[in-house]
Write a structure and sequence with these properties.
alpha+beta; single chain; rod-shaped; about 60% helix; 6-stranded antiparallel beta sheet
């Protein structure tokens, strides 16, 4: 629950911070744009001031061409071209100023007065150039000297007046920009402070959470070390107290670690074994081919083998070895003493062999009377070529007459039956047989199968008849 609350707080903190920063960005952008951008009125004023400057420049160009042209006897065409060019530009600027005179934000009266003077000045200059061109330079110079002040001085005064008005308007715009800038930077500072407070609170909370996680991590490390020690103690306890022999060897067969099971299985002390090689536990005749093929031990899983080993006193012990690879490249082997089991298996095989080679016919059936086993004597007695010809047949098919049914009933009810009967061979011939049968019980006392021993007494019965005769 605490973890969920912390995650919720961090999520809300990031969301609020993101919203604050976005708001801060858009508000600041809008304010700065308003502060630094030119208004429509300011753009008109700037255009007016630019055209005034151009008009003043071209007016100076016209003046600079009037006198040289008048006093030039050769009528320099280059001066005339310069005059025409200045006149054209002068006319263009007058037209631009006339367009601006329609704006309500500009001083229309002053602009119109300047336009009137400018047009008179242009007309006067054109007239002077015309007089000069027809060969009247003296008249042109006299006209220039008498009348130029009528146009130049008022024009310059009006120009200065209009320029002063424009600069005043620009100053008012600048003051307005400054006021907007102060408001913008005040808002900028306020939003910055708010963002810093929120981010600081968020990161303080994250820092506290990180310290908590660090503390928890240390506790987990301690718990992990304790758990690993506990597991190691448990493994050591299991390793030492295991009934089987457990050992660890390298790929050279040198014993690295072994539990106390070695003392029980081989009769050596642990100190003695740690100085030995696994080959020391083998008989010389078994060392012809190295029985320890480490490359056959799988990387995943284990390898199970059975071998005989030599005990400290020279006697033989049979053991089952389960080998597996360890991550560090060594091998772990678990040995279990199977000497008794091997002896019992040998005895069982001997019994099976004895039963198979017995002179009497021996057979087994299930509880319904179906044959499941027949030894060699029984196969021969019934004239079969192999056990397969008898296994699966019913007892009622192997005897002649109803006596066999009474035998099966006695076995199923009493568990024992014996006597004589007439056997029927595979080829259909009959012979006298003496039998003894009983029911074999399983470990829980329930009927498992029926076991019987059979003897062909045909010849014995003939001899008895002869003796009796």
């Amino acid at each position: 629950m605490k973890q969920n609350k912390s995650n919720t707080f961090i999520f809300i903190g990031f969301a609020v911070t993101a919203i604050t920063l976005l708001t801060f960005y858009f508000v600041t952008y809008s304010s700065l744009k308003t502060t630094v951008s030119e208004s429509k009125e300011e753009q008109f004023v700037l255009k007016m001031m630019r055209h005034l400057d151009n008009l003043q420049s071209y007016e100076s160009d016209i003046e600079s061409t009037e006198r040289p042209y008048i006093i030039s006897e050769e009528k320099d065409k280059r001066i005339l071209r310069k005059f025409k060019e200045a006149t054209l530009n002068y006319t263009k600027e007058l037209g631009e100023l006339r367009k601006l005179s329609d704006s309500a934000q500009l001083p229309k009266k002053e602009i119109l007065q300047l336009l009137t003077l400018g047009e008179k000045k242009l007309s006067f200059s054109t007239e002077i150039i015309g007089l000069s061109s027809i060969g009247e330079p003296r008249a042109a110079i006299a006209a220039l000297l008498d009348r130029e002040d009528l146009f130049d001085t008022p024009f310059r005064d009006q120009y200065i007046k209009l320029s002063d008005i424009g600069r005043g308007l620009l100053r008012s715009f600048q003051e307005e920009h400054d006021a907007n800038a102060k408001s913008t930077f005040f808002l900028f500072g306020l939003l910055s402070l708010l963002a810093i407070l929120i981010i600081g609170l968020l990161y303080y909370r994250i820092w506290v959470r990180a310290k908590s996680i660090e503390t928890l991590s240390e506790e987990l490390k301690i718990a992990n070390v304790q758990l690993e020690k506990h597991i190691e103690d448990q493994n050591n306890s299991l390793f030492e107290n295991a009934h089987d022999l457990i050992g660890i060897v390298n790929d050279k067969g040198e014993i690295i670690k072994v539990n106390s099971g070695v003392e029980i299985l081989f009769g050596y002390t642990r100190e003695e074994v740690l100085k030995m090689n696994i080959k020391d536990f083998l008989f010389p005749e078994d060392l012809v081919n190295d029985p320890f093929e480490f490359d056959k031990v799988p990387t995943v899983g284990s390898l199970l083998t059975e071998s005989r080993y030599r005990k400290n006193d020279g006697t033989t012990v049979y053991a089952e070895m389960n080998s597996s690879r360890l991550p560090d490249g060594t091998f772990m082997a678990i040995l279990r003493d199977i000497t008794d089991r091997r002896q019992k298996e040998t005895e069982l095989r001997m019994r099976e062999y004895a039963m198979e080679k017995a002179m009497s016919g021996i057979g087994m059936t299930d509880m319904s009377g179906t044959i499941t086993y027949a030894n060699e004597a029984l196969i021969k007695m019934w004239g079969a070529g192999s056990a397969d010809e008898l296994i699966g047949k019913k007892l009622t098919d192997c005897f002649d007459g109803p006596r066999v049914l009474k035998t099966i009933e006695d076995l199923q009810t009493k568990g024992f039956s014996s006597g004589e009967d007439i056997g029927k061979r595979i080829d259909g011939s009959l012979f006298a047989v003496d039998f003894t049968a009983n029911v074999v019980l399983d470990f829980n006392g329930r009927p498992l199968c029926m076991f019987g021993s059979f003897v062909d007494i045909t010849e014995i019965k003939k001899q008895r008849k002869e003796v009796y005769r």
